[in-house]
Structure formats: C-alpha cells, structure tokens
Amino acid sequence: MVARSITITPEVVLASTGHGKVRPDWLEEIADYVQRAAADGELVTLTSKRRMLTPAQVADALGVSRSTISRKIAAGELRAVKVGNRNRIPFEEYERFWRDTMGDVVELTRDEIAADLFGDR
C-alpha cells in the first residue's frame, strides 16, 4: 500500500458555496479518493491542520524583507507561534495583518490618489 493524500484549501471550499451544484468539485475529489481507497481495502483518515506560514512566506506575500517581519513579530504587531525555535504565523493572523496594513496604506495615500484622479479642487 502506498500512502496517498489530497489537500483541499479553505479558499477552494469557500469559493464553491452557493454555485447550485449538488456536489462541488472539491467534494467530488474527496468522494473519489475515498471510493478508490475502499476498493483497495485501505483505511481513510480525514484530518485538518492549522495553516501556518513562515516569516519568509509572509514577507514574500507582503513585498517586504524577512527581517521586517521579524521586527513586527518582536514588536508584537504580528502574532507568531513558536514551533521548536522557529516562528510560524497562523494564516488568519497574516490575513488580519494584511487587512490592517492595507487599511493604513489606503489612509496614507487617499489624498494623493484623489488628487491624481480628480486634480486639485
């Protein structure tokens, strides 16, 4: 027996709600997987795990340096969890930080954008 796995992201599940299909594609994929495993006499275990990002992944996503993210963590602006001696940022914390950061950017650039779009009034 060869161990197999599939991964379904929250975005895929949430994007499929309300499309009127009897079964969304991600659920079809799970059903097919379970049926194949059952036909092979295999045991299927469904698990979920919290999505965690490294400081480097968050830095790449935000377009900043890893050391900037490390400073944000040290300052308490970005919550991280220690896994061994490494920091990991829960995905929902990354999303919160992104929303807060983008809100600040919008606030700081609102007048400049309005002037560019509509000229000085």
TrEMBL record:
GO terms for molecular function: DNA binding. SUPFAM superfamilies: Putative DNA-binding domain (SSF46955). Pfam families: HTH_17. InterPro entries: DNA-bd_dom_put_sf, HTH_17, SinI_DNA-bd. Residues 52-99 form the Helix-turn-helix domain. It comes from the Bacteria. Signal peptide: none annotated. This is Helix-turn-helix domain-containing protein.
